[in-house]
Amino acid sequence: MEQPQPPFRILPRVNERNRHFWTGGERGELCFLRCRSCGTYIHPPTPICPSDHAKDLAPEAVSGRATIASFTINHQPWMPGPELPYVVAIVEIEEDPTVRLTTNIVGCKPSEVYVGMPVEVVFERHGDAEGDVWIPLFRPRGNGK
Amino acid sequence: MSVSAVAQDIVERKACITGIGQSDIGRRLHRDPLELTLDACLAAIEDAGLTTDEIDGLSTYPGISMAPAGFSGAGAVDVHDALRLKLGWCDSGIETSGQLGSVIKACLAVGAGLARHVLCFRSVWEGTAQGKGGRQGIGAEGGSSYRASGPLEWTLPFAAPSAAVWIAMFAQRHFHQYGTTREQLAQIVLNARRNAGVNPKAIYREPMSMDDYFAARMIAEPFCLFDCDVPCDGGTAVVISHVDTARDRKKPVVRIQAVGTALRGRPSWDQFDDLSTMATRDAGAHLWTRTDLKPSDVDLVELYDGFSFLALSWLEALGFCKVGEGGPFIEGGTRIAREGELPLNTHGGQLSAGRLHGYGFLHEACVQLRGEGGERQVPGDPEVAVAAAGGGNTCGCLLLTR
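^ inputs. structure came back:
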């Protein structure tokens, strides 16, 4: 992929509530909790649906396609991480633009990133003694210029 | 001031600010943070003409906190015990309407009769605690086996450990949507520096030009170093008293006309419904539902500038201009200058006077309304001011009169 040696990342602590999100990448799937009665995508995951308060929720894979709602080119070495400068972005998923993710944009130069850019998910695998996680990053989609 | 028919129901009007105090302030003072805190508290009590025996309420933000380093100089328990206070009411915490939520809660406690004189304080020692190694990210100090959970779970894995990064994305969205420019945003920074030049306690006082601004290294675009506030050491305190006690005070009191606490959007950096506004939108609008005063009545504003864009966001949220028009509103800097029609951050803000984290703005609003600004006093005998703190996913504001 873009970076053969993934950069250092602080990993998320996986629990029963978020496991689908952080491990869906093992199957190449970006997964969100979804309410089976009203269809609402729920992020971050909660035990009840915020729309109808139902508890019948299940993880569901989405397309992985998204649009950049905003971004910043980060120049500050806050901690070990991706090579500077790197892009932090907020993306809106195709299935429901009110569901957003803070993420990194990879696979292009920071100067090529723009608000409204179509992107798609790509996973970066990390692991330690606690187990493996798949961090969802996004790269430009098709010839989305 | 006009008295509304609903004034009886606006409980914060039963409270007023009777004393203000501040410790020494410096980039790195290497002093005991509790000492700085107590210096500020005792100065505020003295300023109100009170003694520690008369303080029966205590409120602070955020309370005892271990991270990031130096974020809290003392908890309520430290001050309660050190001053041997005898309290009818005590409160502290970070989940409130921004840093000034602690002051707003004190107003409610006074209005509810739980206390007569509430000591409110906020102290920081981030300058000394974080040392020379540069500003720390939130959660970045965890070590190799650390894993992120809670809200940070959604940002730390993406090397986004700072509000600089999160707020830069709000600014970028605003730039995209409304054509706001770095030249416009720079006016928040340059204005703060001009005002800091006549504030003897400000951290950075040397003049700054537009060229200096554009020569600074980038942090998170569109923010350069000068768009970010400066960590420092220092404490600030105010005494919130019942208005019935006002006539016994040493100095004219500052009255609280209204507060804004609303947060109708999701309490989240990235899930908030409108990425070109922030929590400021709701608290700012809320404020004007509790008063007959209008934005045009306001003589000066002290608006949180932990990052420059937050002050611009507050100007829009409080209705001084429309959403999206903040850039043209501050363009050229004359309108927000000390002699302008809406003086902004007359002490230098957190950008130049130091990151006292919210309380510095309230303190300065009181200084100006009392006419104690000295060389930096706003002309024209100002009567109405707004002090606002926070932004992003939590904030609060107060409308003050004398």
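Chain B has a mean pLDDT of 95. Residues 18 and 399 of chain B are 15 Å apart (CA to CA).
thumbs up if we can close this ticket
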